[in-house]
Amino acid sequence: MILQMTNKTIILGLESSCDETAAALVANGHEVLSSVVASQFDLHEKYGGVVPEIAARAHIENILPVIRAAFAEAKVTTEQIAAVAVAHCPGLTPALLIAVTAAKTLAWVWNKPLIAINHIHSHLQSAMLEHHADCFPAAALVVSGGHTSIYNCKSPLELELMGRTLDDAAGEAFDKVAMILKLPYPGGPSLEKLAARGDPRTIDFPRTYLDKNSLDFSFSGVKTAVLYYCRGQDMLGADRVPTMSEKEKADIAAGFQAAVVDVLVNKTMRAAQRINAPTVLLGGGVAANSRLREQLQDRCAADNRRLLVAAKKYCTDNAAMVAGLAYHKLKAGLTADLYLEALPHQA
Ligand code: KG4
Ligand code: ZN
Questions:
Q1: Is the Cβ atom of 255 under 6 angstroms away from ligand 1?
Q2: Is 342 a residue whose pLDDT tops 60?
């Protein structure tokens, strides 16, 4: 098999790690020719979270239409692509399996290299989709529904973990607090909307920094503080949320959001200072949050560092970030074989 690295190296990326079925065609790691995402919010709404088997069934139905749409939108033929890339870890195994099986089949039938992508690492690539030059070294925060991690990025392929959550991911905390406040699914965007009408100074929820030098996170405390605020310390009292005023609920949302964002921003800046990184990268679903984007931008500006943040449409799960990172793996000759497995944890 000949590796095609012409002046336009187009890669097909596939993604099905959670509840989004996605396909994208990206040239040279950063030029997005098409990015198609089929979401399943309506299927999981009544369960208040993603049900793996339901997600997998929907991925089976969506994967081929999404791939066809990506080719049609980009006006690219299958002969023009250099490789097929897929997020194979971490995620929900039954869900991951669908894109992994599709990618292996297409790579085999089309006789193209197969590239295995770590979903979390690809979230960072989404911050580089429109800025391909000069990103490194960088301190990077990946903040999503499943993960909250800080990396020392020396290149797209050299990511050193500096800190991670010891319990809930930040997005998971947003989703759970949204459930406590009985907001519509998915919780993160609903909570941000409500917080915009509240005052973040009314309720002072706890900020957990752990050890003074730690770059790890813990969000279970602030989530529990919201629960106690609404249900009482002993959890024996009535749920106050149904009788709360809109203003009180908005103040809770704003106070919670401010507490989470403060910790995320302070720890990311601490990491950037520690490795003296001129650039800060931000990616993952929670990176769509305006308060996080604005506060990190202000702190980077004050600290004379450049913030590269994923465009909002590339914050939540998509396949453009998968195809983007795959370009660097292809260039480095890091291809996978047809024994590639879907893994719930990181490879
Ligand atoms: O990256 P992503 O699509 O999936 C994972 O890899 O987990 O992230 C989804 C997470 C969810 O927890 C969702 O509530 C959160 O990102 N999220 C937000 C916002 N938009 C999505 N959290 C806070 N504010 C937002 N605007
Ligand atoms: Zn994700």
A1: no
A2: yes
